[in-house]
Design goal:
Elements lengths: L1 H18 L13 E5 L6 E5 L7 H4 L17 H8 L14 E8 L3 E7 L8 E6 L2 E8 L5 E6 L3 E9 L8 E8 L5 E9 L4 E8 L1
Parallel strand pairs: 3-11
Antiparallel strand pairs: 1-2, 4-7, 4-9, 5-6, 5-8, 8-11, 9-10
Length: about 210
């Protein structure tokens, strides 16, 4: 009889102790996490309810290449070496005549003229005249572009390139690029001249 009473007493104490145990509540106040099923694996993945904005690197567009920042015109060192050993144009009688490079129109106060040897790098040189006045007595044409700033007057402006020599081979060869005051490319031209001949570009300022 006594053993039964002791068993009932211990059982009552045990149940009373268990009933006083409380489950602690979370104090997390952060964003809600939802489980979504991955399309690739089938397993749930965690995703924030408030998704982050796209990276600024994905929003930014690539900056256009500016010839002012890269006078070599995107050529690598290997390209420069290759141009130095490329074969120059053959000399033709037509290269003795003056050449017209056409005309461009702009509203800016000036244009930037870039020229370089586009064939074999053999020491070609030119003089540059703007509206009949000498602005560059001797410009050596290399693999990279040489910039010349040309201030414009209202109306027609004549820019002349006179071949001082033909280098060590072929005619005087050059690639010409013209940029506006805003850096926009207005023209891309080439010339092949024998010594004394000239190439003329007309720039019209409105």
């Amino acid at each position: 009889m006594r053993s039964k009473l002791l068993f009932i007493l211990f059982l009552s104490i045990g149940l009373t102790g268990f009933s006083q145990i409380e489950i602690p509540r979370t104090t997390n106040t952060g964003p809600i996490i939802k489980a979504e099923e991955s399309k690739s694996t089938g397993f749930p993945i965690l995703k924030r309810e408030d998704t982050e904005t796209e990276s600024r690197f994905l929003k930014e567009k690539p900056k256009p290449i500016d010839l002012r920042d890269n006078p070599n015109g995107l050529m690598t060192e290997a390209d420069v070496i290759k141009k130095r050993w490329a074969k120059d144009n053959e000399i033709k009688e037509e290269f003795r005549k003056d050449q017209s490079l056409g005309n461009v129109v702009t509203q800016g106060r000036f244009v930037e003229v870039y020229c370089r040897d586009h064939q074999y790098i053999d020491g070609d040189k030119v003089q540059i005249f703007v509206n009949g006045e000498l602005v560059a007595a001797s410009v050596r044409l290399n693999a990279g572009f040489t910039p010349i700033l040309v201030t414009l007057q209202d109306g027609f402006n004549s820019i002349e390139f006179v071949a001082l020599n033909q280098g060590s081979s072929g005619p005087n060869t050059a690639e010409l690029r013209v940029l506006s005051e805003k850096g926009e490319q207005l023209a891309v031209k080439e010339w092949n001249l024998l010594t004394g001949a000239k190439a003329e570009l007309i720039v019209v300022k409105n």
